[in-house]
């Protein structure tokens, strides 16, 4: 399969790009700074992405790009509070709508949401974005044409992220382990909706990813 990974230079995306490459798929790595360029905040750049010769004929697109951030409810700036609306939420929605017209029959769109399993100060808008993406994937999946599949992967903390913040990495799933969930979704091997995924069973995955639908 030819698999486009958007956000392929990030903590999750770099592992997500390596996994299908290790399974023998062709991986095209994209982000705002290349090698193939796309900006999830700009729908026109998603149009351009699918016209890129390196991307044409792709079977799957995976997005692990464009986070929101933790922002307190009383953040003075509306734009700052709603960061993630245009890139992470609407960007992934618009990417999905464009992918309908470009991916090969039977291909896959795999989005990233996220989850907070404990009360997390500043998480209100990010939680809204994550829940919105999960709901979108669940509702839109039955409308996917030509045997295309739509999945949202909802990870808890990835171990590398608290590690970078000087926190205990064992609180999260290693990105390489999470990447198998994405690659399974690309290949159509995702377990039935609502079932526990592989990394959920590991002792270092106290915050399991869920996969929708
Ligand atoms: N890390 C975690 O523990 C965790 C847990 C749950 C969910 N998530 C979610 O997983 C996703 C990835 O997180 P991450 O921690 O891997 O992020 P990250 O390390 O900051 O990497 C972000 C990646 O996305 C690209 N990117 C950023 N903005 C973009 C845009 N507007 N258009 C296109 N590419 C863009 C970046 O490259 P360029 O700068 O070159 O564009 C980079 O490749 C996010 O949606 C995040 O909310 C993360």
- Percent of residues in helices: 25-40%
Principal-axes geometry comes out as globular
Approximately what portion of the residues adopt beta-strand conformation? 5-15%
User: Main β-sheet: number of strands, strand sense, barrel status?
Assistant: 7 strands, mixed
> Count of DSSP helices?
7
Under the CATH scheme, which architecture would be assigned?
A: 3-Layer(aba) Sandwich
User: In the CATH hierarchy, what is the class?
Assistant: Alpha Beta
Q: What is the helix/strand order?
A: EHEEHEHHEHEHHE
Mean pLDDT: 89
For the secondary structure, the number of strands is 7
The CATH homology group name: NAD(P)-binding Rossmann-like Domain
Q: How many structural domains?
A: 1
**CATH topology tier name:** Rossmann fold
Distance between the termini: 22 Å
Strand order of the largest sheet: 3-2-1-4-5-6-7
Low-confidence stretches: 192-208
The small-molecule ligands in this entry are: NADP nicotinamide-adenine-dinucleotide phosphate
Protein name: SDR family oxidoreductase
Biased composition (Basic and acidic residues): 186-201
GO molecular function: oxidoreductase activity
Keywords: Oxidoreductase
Key attributes of the depicted protein:
alpha/beta, Rossmann fold, 15% strand, binds NADP nicotinamide-adenine-dinucleotide phosphate
Quick take:
InterPro entries: NAD(P)-bd_dom_sf, SDR_DHRS6-like, SDR_fam. By secondary structure, this protein is an alpha/beta fold.
């Amino acid at each position: 399969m030819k698999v486009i990974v958007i956000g392929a230079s990030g903590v999750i995306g770099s592992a997500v790009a390596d996994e299908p490459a290790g399974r023998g798929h062709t991986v095209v790595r994209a982000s705002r700074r290349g090698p193939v360029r796309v900006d999830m905040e700009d729908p026109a750049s998603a149009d351009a992405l699918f016209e890129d010769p390196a991307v044409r004929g792709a079977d799957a697109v995976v997005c692990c790009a464009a986070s929101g951030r933790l922002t307190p409810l009383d953040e003075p700036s509306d734009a700052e509070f709603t960061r993630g609306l245009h890139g992470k939420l609407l960007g992934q929605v618009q990417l999905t709508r464009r992918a309908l017209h470009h991916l090969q029959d039977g291909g896959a769109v795999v989005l990233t949401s996220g989850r907070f399993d404990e009360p997390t100060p500043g998480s209100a808008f990010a939680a809204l974005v994550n829940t919105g993406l999960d709901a979108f994937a669940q509702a839109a999946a039955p409308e996917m044409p030509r045997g295309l599949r739509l999945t949202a992967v909802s990870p808890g903390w990835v171990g590398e992220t608290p590690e970078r913040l000087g926190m205990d990495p064992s609180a999260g799933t290693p990105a390489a382990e999470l990447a198998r969930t994405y690659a399974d979704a690309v290949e159509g091997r995702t377990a039935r909706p609502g079932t526990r995924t592989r990394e959920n069973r590991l002792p270092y995955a106290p915050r399991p990813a869920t996969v929708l639908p």
